[in-house]
Design goal:
By secondary structure, the chain is mainly beta. It has helices at 2-15, 22-25; strands at 32-40, 46-56, 61-70, 75-85, 90-97, 104-110, 116-125, 128-139, 144-152, 159-168. Strands 1-2-3-4-5-6-7-8-9-10 form a 10-stranded antiparallel beta barrel.
Length: 173
């Protein structure tokens, strides 16, 4: 965690020299250190740990690095990369994981309340890009955001839901 916090400091100092786009400013609430708990709503799976988010690539991205441990004792790491795609005029989030080989690409749309991102999740497969799930990320305006995911198994029709609750542990925002 010390390495992540020092990396956060370097990113914050480096990114301060560049002007943020208005689109990325809307996501600046992510910057900082968080504790998270991600759990399957109707199942046993739980993953909990720390998340550090910082600006990267001259403030054109926010990168969140998460390190946690699952309820089975397995360490899990993943990166979330948030950006605004000016060519397609949309927010996008890319997720990569240490324990899951698929890469996820979310197309994100702000809701009218200004605190909720509505997501459509896609991944690459042998058939090209396929839709996996829908999700929302809701920020409470202060010190918490909740990521709720719902996916449908195309073969069985079974719905799997996850809820990732993140609480700020620093006072930078």
């Amino acid at each position: 965690m010390k390495k992540a916090i020092s990396t956060l400091s370097v990113f914050c100092l480096f990114s301060a020299a560049y002007a943020q786009s208005p689109e990325m400013e809307k996501l600046s609430w992510l910057i900082g250190a968080w504790e998270y708990k991600d759990q399957q709503v109707d199942g046993e799976y739980v993953d909990a740990g720390k998340r550090v988010c910082a600006f990267a690539l001259m403030d054109s991205y926010i990168v969140c690095e998460s390190t946690g441990v699952t309820n089975s004792g397995k360490e899990r790491n993943y990166l979330m990369q948030f950006n605004y795609n000016g060519l397609d005029e949309r927010y996008e989030i890319n997720d990569i994981f240490s324990d899951y080989t698929r890469k996820l690409l979310y197309r994100a749309t702000w809701s009218e309340d200004g605190y909720t991102l509505e997501l459509e999740t896609n991944t690459w497969s042998a058939d090209g890009m396929v839709r996996l799930s829908t999700a929302t990320v809701t920020y409470n305006g202060k010190n918490q955001f909740v990521w709720e995911i719902s996916s449908v198994n195309k073969s069985t029709g079974e719905v799997t839901r996850f809820r990732d609750e993140s609480n700020r542990v620093d006072s930078s925002h």
